[in-house]
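thread: overnight batch results

M.L. [08:02]
morning all. the overnight job finished for the chain we discussed friday. pasting input first so we're all looking at the same thing
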Amino acid sequence: MRGLPVWALAPHDLSRIDRRALVLYAFACLPLVVAITTIGLDEKAIDSGEAAALVGAAMVSVLAIPLLALRLRAREGKASASARRAPGTESR
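M.L. [08:03]
and the structure it wrote out:
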């Protein structure tokens, strides 16, 4: 659900791939997860093991999702470069 507003409010001159990358960057939610797990621990709704697992999963997403976004943008850059190259020419 967090991605829909980011997609809708992204600048209209962004390509489709750039919009997807922007949505992926918006998914970094570690501070939110830490705050929610702290409240859960204070209210004794979850134990410390569950809180640690949630924060660990959020840390993995903070590391992995931006890398995925970078990969999407790099793939678009390669595709647009090959589209600009005239047929029969060699790259240097």
